[in-house]
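Hey, quick one: can you model this chain's 3D structure?
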Amino acid sequence: PGSPTTNLLTINSSILEDKVGGGLVLQQDEIGITTTTSVNLLLSYQIELGNNQIFSFGLQGGTTSIQHDQSELTLRFLDDPDFPQVEERSSSPNFGAGVALMGDNYYLGLSAPRLLNSEFDDGVTNTTIYKRHLYATGAFTKELTSLFVLKPGALIKYVDGSPLSFDLSANIRYN
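Sure thing. Here's the predicted structure for all 175 residues.
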């Protein structure tokens, strides 16, 4: 009891001869007295450039709702003025966008799944819950022999107020 829980439902489909994609993402996280619920609609489109290259882009929009239920706290003094036994709610919109270029042996991508900072305002304080995120990613494949293929990749992440972060990876595929 009291452990964090996450519920996630995603629905997506490709339509119009695999050129357009659409989706819905519903997510709910419960941690302590805080419940965060997000609903996002997604839309994507891809363009064939020739030479087996595809350029695609996507947009998403939705809302994030945060609820604190302080009546669920176990307090030593029930009349503590710093912990009123109330339920507080706040909602904020979310928009995101991304682009990708893919070929037979590479991909490059740029995305911003959160273009707006999400804030929680309980009437006393205003707290930033989610900050703008920016991602750049890429990878390529290189045939080493007829049995081995190398695939190095990189992800660069930036979040407002945090240092730039890098993830590097590589895998070798056999046969």
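One thing worth noting: The CA atoms of residues 134 and 143 lie 31 Å apart.
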